[in-house]
Predict the structure.
Amino acid sequence: MDNMFIRTLQNKDHSRPPVWYMRQAGRILPSYNELRKQYSFRELMTTPELAAKVTLLPVEDLGVDAAIIFSDILTIPTAMGMEIEWTDKGPVFHNPLIDAPNPHKSLSPNSDKLSFVYKAIELVKQQSDTPLLGFCGAPLTTLFYMLQGTSLKHEFPEARKFIYQNKKETELLIDAVTEFSIEYANQQISRGVDAFQLFDTHAGLMPLDIYKDMFIPAVRRIADAVRSKGIPFIFFPKGLGAGLNLVTPDLCDFVSIDWQTSLSQARQLVHPQVGLQGNIDPMLLFAPKEEIISCMEKNYKPFFADNPGWILNLGHGVMPNTPFQNIKYLTDWIKATNWI
Ligand code: CP3
């Protein structure tokens, strides 16, 4: 596939950074919000024709260089037997694993329960030449939700307590989630995804030493499975900070940098052979258009000049209610600007 996003992942030449946005497929697109009046989030995600349509909306409406399959990181726990409810305040598992007498034995992984995702990938590949990202949640972030059932103001105090109180059980759970994530990734790859991103949104909520010892090996197992199929692997360990020095070429091809860490700091910490993605603050998109562009001119253009192995993206998912005209304006600017 000859496309700017793929060429950048392969470290081949490119004239501008490719662009896509985390959480681009929902929330901010007027066309998505129209569909949401008719269908629930669950219906959109689990009906392959609708999921394929939503996946391609940002390609059509914004002109991004890559699509990401419209799904969620919490499909894994549901396919392992946990019941989820999508409420207005976010996802809730009513039977969190911290309440189960024997957590890992209560799980019953069944990859067939994710066939709606596989079918949606097939449909997107039939309908479009745009590179398609597959994804799943990393074991830590996925387990936080499974253990605690929901986030408490983006924190996971009960899940964190459990990890300290039940180290052996936690290891068994990490293993189960990792095994199933590998199966899920393999199925996505066999249906045609062109790259794969692992979301570790809450990586920064564990001490670095514990993250390194208990969770990075699990990330590496998923990465190895994906990369052994020739598919580029992007890792998003949000909040890792100085721990970015753990990111080496044996772990991933690209690392997505959060908005707290500057790209130049990240470039110094991350191994030089690993490419960078990110890290525009999603809140910048609420600023007046001139300020958005002046931030690009001041920070991002010079960065690209020195570091062509970079995929332009946000430092976390796009915020609800982000003005559509601002993200459209930025995307048009990125594609029209002379970067070199
Ligand atoms: O990037 C994309 O556009 C593709 C689809 C995608 C969704 N969720 C769709 C979604 C992806 C890649 C995700 C990842 C995800 N899901 C993460 C990791 C990335 C991140 O942003 O931190 C996490 C932690 C989740 C779990 C999740 N899903 C939460 C906490 C919520 C509720 C709050 C919120 O973010 O809206 C969701 C719901 C969700 N997932 C929506 C979408 C489009 C909103 C559903 C709606 O009301 O339309």
Q: What stands out?
A: The first helix runs from residue 4 to 9. The pocket of coproporphyrinogen III is lined by residues 22-27, 36, 41, 68, 70-74, 90-91, 135, 199, 201, 316-317 (CB under 6 Å). The beta strands are 67-68, 84-87, 90-93, 132-137, 195-200, 233-237, 254-257, 275-280, 310-314.
